Amino acid sequence: MFTFIRYISVILSPVFLYLSLKFIDFGLLYIPFFSFIIFTISFFKKKRKLITFFIFFLYWLLTLFWILNLNVDLTGLQRVLLFFGWIFLSAFYAFLFSLPFFLCSLDNFEIFVIPLIYSVIEILMSLTRDFSFIWMFPSVSLVKYPILIQTADIGGSYILTFFVILFSVLIYKIFVDKKNFRKYFLIFLIVFLLIFYYGIYSLRKDFSNGNKKFKVTLIQPNLEGYMKESYRDFVDYRIDMIKELLDVSLKDDGDILIFPETSSPIFFSYESPTRRYLKNFAAANNRSIFIGAIREDEGKDLYYNSIFLFKPDGSIEHYDKIRLVPFVEHLPYSDIWDFIKKIDYGQGDYTPGKVQKVFTYKDVNFSGYICFESIFPKFVTNFSKNGANFLINVSEDIWFIKGDGLKQHFYSGMLRSVENRKYLVRVSNPGISAVIDWYGNIIWKSNKGKKEVKTENVGLNDRLTFFVYSDNIAGKILIYIFILFIYVKIGWRKNDGKS
Predict the structure, then answer these.
(1) Is 90 exceeded by the pLDDT of residue 60?
(2) d(Cα 17, Cα 30) in Å, to the nearest integer?
């Protein structure tokens, strides 16, 4: 009977963990459900590593299942590659999430190193050039609880991941270590109260520094996926929609009119009727237009996923996406090894940008970053360092509207607002568009799959958080502790555990 219960828990524990993030309003359940996973792993001795990997493999198969439901017209080869990509990514993440349990014992003090290792994995992945994909790490479980995420301005999402797993470990110890359960309960209570009271302190703090507010207009076109793929057949339709929504936006007095990623089917690298129309509209109505489009570097056969800013004075500026989606927007390391460039299965072939630009309009500094870039905490902090007073994230999410991917993408990027103490304006096709304040509160959120135009005030903050100006010193300390742990563990094993 006990053996049956053990194996049932192997199936149920990852399912419960997945459901806690699928229904994000109950994200706090992630903590006890992760404790349940630790309990389940502790039941096994001989097969512990295999069971651990299986649990997290099942969890990631469920979490990334949306990959198989992409809203794209795929060839047979692409569907096969997508299936194996789903399996590979799930296995890769299963290994990463299993690694702390491979390195640490559950029977001694080493169990308290597990939270640290999860944070270190998240930090190192955020710095990886082409294979980083920081998707739905434990910190995401707290996004619906603003009072619990305020410490992100100290250590980013990395420190939130540390606390989430630490609480899970403490719950496990409270129930299994009867002799010391009071001690672990006290530690749990002290850490929770420190986070809670820091949250109260932060939520009462005004980060505006007396700065005026700025009005932005979010424009969500709700273009269908087939219109993006078959762009030659829908160029006029898409241009007419841009013009229609620009006219609708004039009902409010937004300073910047913001469209999503790749909204325009026309290149803005050179003169065209659409480019002239946007320049004239901006000048005639004294508004700036912020719009995503593909940029061609003339004469070099290079293409960039870009955002363009059309100003009333007739000038046009742009930002080129730097963190491209691997295997979708480009092949990793194709700029180093020429033979990779010859592989073609229908993927994009964009060139990464080089400069994390800050735009200026009406004496207000702001930065825009594109889609996938929103999940990288350290990357986004560079915009703040460069002087941005608020942040804009434009995205094209129509490709995974059928599954959990759209919501997962939205929630994965929410913490950038708290880490930087900047208002975050997210504009997506077909949603979720939103305005998020510097406390992590959602001020306004659109409905997915609906054409919407909304004007909102955003606060401006020109100061840097500890997380930003310290260059994530808290995370670096965690890395050093991890290195020390590995050094001591190796030395301990060499001495057969005698010292």
Answers:
(1) yes
(2) 6
